[in-house]
Design goal:
heterodimer; A: 116 residues; four-stranded antiparallel sheet; globular; B: 112 residues; seven-stranded mixed sheet; 0% helix
Chain lengths: 116, 112
């Protein structure tokens, strides 16, 4: 069974860069898409983007100019970087495995707060 | 972007009674490969969402058979045959036919 464990800085100042990593345990790292999704406090879900084992990415156009998703297949990890954060980027950030075009397993989530 | 619209946004239900949530997409979710990539997720407070159904009606591993999905094109429905206490929380539909993936606003299910 695939398990995802994520980590990263939880408190940022405006204009800083958000950096999160998600490690994948169990299952196959290849043959899947690895996804980042966020949820502002008390609000709904927003898809950020995804990457596969070969580095092919797809991004939400609303965030594309600020987001980079990368993969390290040697460690079975993938990462999210988002630059120039503002208070509007305050959210719980989740990593997930997408298979059959559905987010099947999820990380535990990390609350990232942006405040001066 | 495809807009996903759920109704109702709040659903008080009685334990043991059925519940139903609708999800409508602004465009057809039929992919060129013939599949319809519509999923349903359930989120309890303080927890990550978990997948219930994918491709309209396929139950994910471990999901009880009281959950079922139906629909086609732009109109979809999640049904819970007999609501149990563990079913409270927020339900989201999600489309993965087109980029970017998009979600409905969520429907809060609570016990009367």
């Amino acid at each position: 069974q695939v398990q995802l464990q994520q980590w990263g800085a939880g408190l940022l100042k405006p204009s800083e860069t958000l950096s999160l990593t998600c490690a994948v345990y169990g299952g196959s790292f290849s043959g899947n898409y690895w996804t980042w999704i966020r949820q502002p406090p008390g609000k709904g879900l927003e898809w950020i983007g995804e990457i596969n084992h070969s580095g092919t990415t797809n991004y939400n156009p609303s965030l594309k100019s600020r987001v980079t998703i990368s993969v390290d297949t040697s460690k079975n990890q993938f990462s999210l970087k988002m630059n120039s954060v503002t208070a509007a980027d305050t959210a719980v950030y989740y990593c997930a495995r997408e298979a059959v075009r559905a987010p099947q397993e999820w990380g535990q989530g990390i609350l990232v707060s942006v405040s001066s | 972007d495809i807009v996903m619209t759920q109704t109702p946004l709040s659903s008080p239900v009685t334990l043991g009674q059925p519940a139903s949530i609708s999800c409508r997409s602004s465009q057809s979710l039929v992919h060129s490969d013939g599949n319809t990539y519509l999923s349903w997720l359930h989120q309890r407070p303080g927890q990550p969402p978990r997948l219930l159904l994918y491709k309209i009606s396929n139950r994910f591993s471990g999901v009880p058979d009281r959950f079922s999905g139906s629909g086609a094109g732009t109109d979809f429905t999640l049904k819970i045959s007999r609501v149990e206490s563990e079913d409270v929380g927020i339900y989201y539909c999600m489309q993965a036919t087109q980029f970017p993936r998009t979600f409905g606003q969520g429907t809060k299910v609570e016990i009367k």
